[in-house]
Amino acid sequence: TRVRVALVQGLGGKVDVLRGGAIDWSPLGDGSGLYEDDRLRTFKGAWAKLAFDGGSALRVGEETMISFGGGVTIERGMVEGELAAGLRLKTPTLEAETATSRDIEFR
């Protein structure tokens, strides 16, 4: 079984998900779960709010792509939000893990 890592708690515009092991992207709905090995992309003018187990919350900005697996990798674009201890964020050139709760913004 796949492990759920986040829950969509609001979105606007065109937001797609590529499920782990799938070939085609599909529309992502409010209230959907996101799982290890999924990827999420937002288009121009779109956004998504994600809630993670442990209390972290991220807002994914427009024209952004992120993937889930061993944390969250921001492949392109921008996320912002509040991280609870233990959530790992990565970009192609940076990795950060929170030890205490704090507000962060990756651009």
Could you name the key traits of this structure?
seven-stranded mixed beta sheet, mainly beta, 107 residues, six-stranded antiparallel beta sheet
Please sum up the structure shown:
The protein is built from no helices and 13 strands. It has 107 residues and is mostly beta strands. The mean pLDDT is 88.
Low-confidence stretches: none
What share of residues is helical? under 10%
Q: Which word captures the global form?
A: globular
CA(first)-CA(last) distance: 33 Å
Let me know the average pLDDT.
88
Rg measurement, Å: 13 Å
What order do the helices and strands follow?
Answer: EEEEEEEEEEEEE
Count of alpha and pi helical runs: 0
Strand content: over 45%
Question: Biggest sheet, strands in spatial order?
Answer: 3-2-5-8-9-11-12
Count of strand segments: 13
Structural class: mainly beta
Note the main sheet.
Answer: 7 strands, mixed
List the helices and strands and how they pair.
Layout: E1 4-12, E2 15-18, E3 26-27, E4 33-35, E5 39-42, E6 47-52, E7 57-60, E8 65-68, E9 72-76, E10 79-83, E11 88-90, E12 95-97, E13 102-106
Parallel strand pairs: 9-11
Antiparallel strand pairs: 1-4, 1-6, 2-3, 2-5, 5-8, 6-7, 7-10, 8-9, 10-13, 11-12
Detailed description of the structure:
- The mean pLDDT is 88.
- The protein is globular, with a radius of gyration of 13 Å.
- It contains no helices and 13 strands.
